[in-house]
Each structure stands twice: as structure tokens, then as C-alpha cells.
Amino acid sequence: MRLTRPSFSKSLFYAIAVVFVAIGGLWIAGGMATFTWIEVSEMIPLNKVVDTQAGQDLHTNVYFIRQNFQIQAVTLNATPEISGFALALLGLGVALFSFLPVWQAVLGATLWLGIVAFTLSDASFPALSQIISGQLFSLSLVALAGLSVLSAAAIPSFLIGLSHGSNVASSKKNRSILGLVWGINLLLTFSNQRFDLGVRTAIPAFIWMILAVGLYVYQNKDNKALLGISLLGLSSLIPLLWHANTPGIQAIESWNLINQVVMGLLFPLFIYRNFGPLLAQNLPIHKVIHKAALLPLHLIQIGVLILSVGAVFAFNSGAYHQGMAAKENYAGDVSVFVGDTQMAEIHYKNATLHSRLNTKSNLSLAALAQQAGDTETFAYYVAASQSINRDPALSVALANVFATENRPFDALFTLQKSDSADPRIATQLALQYERLAIPDSAVYFYDRAFSLEPENPLYIANKLYAESTYLKRKPEFNPSEDLAIQANLVAAGIPTAPMNPSFVPSADLRDLVYLYNGMMFWKGKAPLYDLAGWQRSLGEMFPELELLKSWQSFYHAKPLVALNQLNVSIAADTTQGSGMTGILAFWKYATAYPVKTPPISRANALAMLEKYPFQIPVLQQAIPLVPAKKGYEAALAALQWNEQNPAFYPIYATQALKMGEINYADEAMEKLRTLNSALYQASQASYLAEKQRALQKTKF
């Protein structure tokens, strides 16, 4: 049984066309980056006056958000390897079934798998997958190399058909023009690729390869064997392009250009030898090129293969070593997918033996080192990758390593060598100047980053921070909804839109600092939030939520709750104890400072005790209107927080007697006698009368 249905050839051809489109898209996209930019937010404290009550100022920290960048290795995506593997199996199957009966092809494949599994010392699935995928990828590269030789004549044969005119003169003129354009462009591209000529208008080498192979596949769209080989060869390009396996791409480009240049030299002789008489009669020879009787095209292709191999070795085997480096890089990627990082490192290092400075190997090794926490190795491979292609992301990665290792000037010089027109680099330069305590330069580069990309919220927020911190001026209001901008505006004392009652912070420092600054600024006008609930999930990341719980209670008319919470926090030392001690003293002073209070009635007595717990008139008027237990608790709390104020002792003593706590009442009056004997004498009569009533109650 063989693949004989014509419809299958069409389906296969269309599948290859889709693969060509995917390959073109991957080439234009440039592949996935090994490292990605990560935005990092930091809290920068600024001590300022956040409240004024009773002639006293409350100084505490607000926080600015300062943002910069870190570079993080991207997790490899197995999709291109899986897709390439599936296409390679399909192409190999089509090619084999075109030459052999199905049973023979299946038997051969089964025997091959059995030999591979038998020879493995570790016959686990990861080991088996690494071997099989590696061998199939190598076969794909060989198929692509062969396809490059076979397709070397596709472009000139297409141009001959395109140049065919209505008469001999017209055809000759067209052939001369098209041949000259083709030859010059091919030589320019080859010179760029091989000798770094630097001609920007030359056609990219990869386009020459795609054009040649694409035309060849189209010219042989009914040949199932060639279609299978084409699919097998093209399958290797998907993982190469997706993961930016530069040695493989360069090897393919170099090999293909050598083939096309050699064919460009031999093809005119082939045409003249076989089709000279037909050319004189202006016959369409492009239709019979593959049927030449005197000197078959296959002989020319064999000659191209021999000469191209010689050219590769004449050029120090560059294409061969790049191809081997690509194969090792592919094997390293597969090892990463199956979790074998040790084997992945071996493969990537083997790739550097074939192509020492290839970017793919060095970046992959840097990614493995970063994941393992090996900073020195990470920096070594990042620096090695920078020697060929200076990437802003890698400059930042290297500068961050220098900064971490306390080498600030090395970090600064590394960034200065990068692209200063990139706002991300300008941001990192500003950060580095801050670390070197050069604020003028820091402000300049924060402003430069903003000017390069004025709509980006990150650079706007940094500009607000720099203006407030270093220039000591209020920045302009910005209506952006970005929370970093909102947080920095509030920290600078610029009112923003009131906080939304439905706001729920995520595990993002920008959200949490906005919440902190917003509650500091809006105080009692801020909504009541579930801070205790948020603290359970975000408390470790943002311990300042402990202070915010007390802050919210105080400015929502629950000063006693706030003082108790804050006192517990100070005892536990969960955040900045000294700063919270100052807040505690301010709140206690503000709560006890005499203020004008609304009239007290039985309906509002409890609320008045909660809002004005240290106001003597409130205690005297409201306690008789509430249950005895509530009155006792209010008097006790007021006394505990104001032990040096004699006025609270008679109030507490009276409430203690009402609760039957005669001993506590006596202790309170004795303490009052030592603090203020005049007040003690003035309160003695009413106290003794209340005590007598309390004693009478105990008799029952």
C-alpha cells in the first residue's frame, strides 16, 4: 500500500504552505526572548506632617512608589518543539510511505525505536524523549540541508520562465535584466552574510532560503516524496526560530547562500549546454529544465553539493559548527522541558564549543544560572552574550548584578554603554545615580525617561517621586487612574479622586501604598475597609496594614479602639515601633484635649463615650445614662490611659462601687489622695455615700 491519492498531495502541499506562513511570521517576530523585563516597585519613605490637632503636628511616614526594572528568565515553551516533532514525524512518514510499503516503514520505525530503547542505560521516558527528539531533529537538519541543494536552481529556473517573451529579442532582454538583478542581489546578500559588507538594502539571507525552497515545493507539488522531505526539513525551522536558536539560522542561511551562489555559477553552463538550440527558437525551456537529456539537473545538484561542502570547509567549517551548536541548543531545550537541568547545561556548553559566542547558548546558560541562584555564573554568560549583540535587557541584568555586589560604578558604566534612548535604560541610570547620591543626575534621567515615553504611567509616577523628593516642589496633578501615580500624588499632598469604597488591593505594592497614603490623606473621609481580612493575606508583604487598622479606627470616631490596637502593635513590634509611639502619643493627646461636644442624651450616650472617651464632661454626663457595666468599662479605660490625671479617679471609683468592686474603688481613691489631696477631699463625701450604698447591697 502506498500513498497514491492525488487529493493527499494537495492537502500536504497546503499544509506546507501553512508552515511557510508560520515560519515567515516567526522570522518577522524574531523569536521569543530568553529574558523579560519585570517592573519592580519600591516604597520610598518621606516623613511629613499628616495631621494637626489641638495645636500639635503629627509627623509620620508616607511612601512614594519608585519603579525600576529587573530582568527575569522566561520559562521555555515546549509548543515549538512539539509542533516541529509532529510535523517531522508526518514528513518522515510521507517520505517513507512514498518509497516503501506501509508495513516495511512501520517495521523499520519500530526496530529503530527498539534499538534506541535497548541501548539506553536509563530507559525512562525523559531519556527516551531526549534521544528520539534529538535524532529526529538531526534528521530534519539533514533534510533541510539536502532541500537547500535541491532548491538551489528553483529561483533561476523561475526567472527563466518569467523572462520568456513574445520573441527572441524580448526574451533575451528580459533574461539579461532579471539575471543581472538576481545575481547582484545574491552577491550582495552573500557578501553581507559572509564578509559583513554592511549593505543595508541587500535582501536578507533568510528570504533567499524561503524563496528558493518555496518555489521548489511549488514546482514539485505533486511529488509526495519531495513534499514529505520538505515538511521534514521545514519542521526544524519552527523551534529554531521560536527560541531564537541563532547558530541554526545562521548555519542554514550560510549553507543556502553558498548553494545558490555555486548554482548561480553553474546554472548558465547547464542551460547553454542543454537548451542552446531551444533558446534560439524562443521556446519555453522552463517547462523542460528538469528533463534535460544531455546533462541532467541532478548532476549539477551533485556538483553543487560537492563544491558547497568544499566552500564550507574553506570558510573554517563555520556552517558545520553552527549547525552542531544549533543541534546541541535544541537538545538543551528538550532537557529543560523534561526537568533535566544538568543535562541541559552540558548540551548548552557543548554548543559553545562549536560556536563560543553564540547568543542562544550563553543566554540559556545564564537563565539556568539565574534559576540556580548562581550570580557569578549568570553575570559571566550575560557578559559573553553581550560581546556580539548588545541588548538593553542584558545591560540592565548585568548592571543589577554589579549593584547587588556593591560595585555601583561598574553598574553605572554598563548602563552608560547601552541605548540611552531607551526610557527603561534612562530609568535604571536614574536609579543608579540615586544609589551614588547624585540627585541632580537622578532627576535628569527620570525626566528623560518621561520625555521619551510621556504616556507611560511608570515614568509619570517616577517623575512625580523625583520632583517631590529632590526638587521639593509640588508636582502637577495628573488624572491617570494608575495607582502608582495616585499614590505618589497623595504622598506629595495633591488631592486625587476620593477612594472607592469597592477598592480591593491586590498583592501589588502599588495598590497597598495607594491604600496607605490614601487613608493617611483622606482620614475620616476614606471608606471603611476590611483591613483585618486583607491583613491575613497581605500582612506579610505589607506589615503597615497593622498601623492602618488603628488609623482607620481613630479617624472613624473610635479613638479608644485605635489606641488599644496601636498599643498592642507597639508591644509586638510588628512595624516601626518608634514611629507608632509618636502616633500613639499624638492620638492620646488629641483625644484628651478639651473639645466642644454635642448635647448628650440617653440615645447617643454610648456613641459619645466611644467618640470622646477621655472628655471629663462626656464621662460625667454619659455614664449615668448607660448600663452599669458599660459605664464601668468606659471609666476604667479612661483611667488606664490617663493615670496621671486626678480627674478620672473619682469617676472610676464611683463606677467601681456600682459594680461592687469596693477594693478597686478604695485603691483608686487612695491613689487620688497622693495625686491631688484637694480633689480627694472634695470627692470624699460623695464617695463615702456611694460606698455606703454599695455596702448595703452586699448585705443581701
Provide an overview of this structure.
The protein has 700 residues and is mainly α. The chain is 69% helix and 5% strand. The chain has 32 helices and 2 strands. The protein has a two-stranded antiparallel ribbon with strand order 1-2. β1 and β2 form a beta hairpin. α1 packs parallel to α8. It starts with 5 loop residues before the first helix and ends with a helix. The mean pLDDT is 89.
Strand order of the largest sheet: 1-2
Number of E strands: 2
Q: What summary fits the major beta sheet?
A: 2 strands, antiparallel
Unreliable stretches (pLDDT < 50, length at least 5) are none
* Strand proportion: 5-15%
- How confident is the prediction overall: mean pLDDT? 89
Helix content: 55-70%
Rounded Rg: 41 Å
Distance, first to last CA? 112 Å
Q: Number of helix segments? A: 32
Instruction: Describe the global form.
Output: elongated
By secondary-structure content and strand pairing, the structural class works out as mainly alpha
